[in-house]
Fold this sequence. Notes:
Blueprint: E1 13-19, H1 30-47, E2 50-56, E3 60-66, H2 72-90, E4 103-106, H3 110-122, H4 142-145, H5 158-165, H6 169-182, H7 184-188, H8 214-225, H9 241-255, H10 259-266, H11 271-284, H12 288-300
Antiparallel strand pairs: 1-3, 1-4, 2-3
Amino acid sequence: MPRLAREKSFDSIYHIMVKSISEVNLYIDENDKAKYLDFMKKAQDQFEFRVYSYCLMDNHAHFIIDANGADISKIMHFINYKYAMYFNKRYERHGHLFQDRFKSKIVKDDRYLLALTAYVHFNATDIKEYKTNPQDYPFSSLGIFLAQRVDEFELIDKDFILSIFSLKDAAARAMYRDLIFKVKSLVDAQKEEFKNEPTEYRSMRTVLVRDLSPDRIIDIIIRKFNIDKLMLKIKRAKDAKEAKAVLCFVLRKFCDLKCADICRILGNTGQANVSRLCSIGRELIKEERYKVIAEEILSIGA
């Protein structure tokens, strides 16, 4: 029986759950959990999505993700593929790690969003040592919301959730704490979260444009790097290496292209090389001299 198409929209917020196959835990120790969040941060650098909440348990994990114009399937494939490769290598195993596809449900309104954050964070109470103090669990974002620990992985956009309560930071945190610890009925309501048909939630958030023209981006790259367009198609052109790396990264980020699509644009290169160039480009674009390129590209869609 063919799989049903996943319901998606470019500006939705998603409740995501990933789960391991029954015979193995998804995370064996804290290093595994940290590694998964590290891969999520790398994906965030690539796709610029937002994370509103997370909680990693031993055999599953919950996330609330604002795709911010990206394809949620590409985001989760990026993370889960890299983690599965890491996990199988570390534990010398083969085969599938995740149980089927990740589960996703589109968030439909602010009330449901707040109920979901409560549900996600309340998962930590299933761990014996955190039953009464889920905010202390290091692999949940609750402690970050309550300002009890720093966001080590720089993943969480807590301001969006807290602003629903109050524009004043202290008041918003206090109200959010009340939601988590006092309004348990909202938490219980989410136990059937994947059984209902999803509906879209489109708030007043600003969503990153992902349909920019590759040709216009290429024109900007060759102008900024002062190279001939032909150099981008030469496989081992040393003088064009940084230009190609930045190009691959921004094509993935702003055009939502797959590595195979970029291969066709560049020619004479494989997907593994494009993936490697994207990683290099992700680091280069953080440098001050290259930030102007991203700013100019963003101005196209403004």
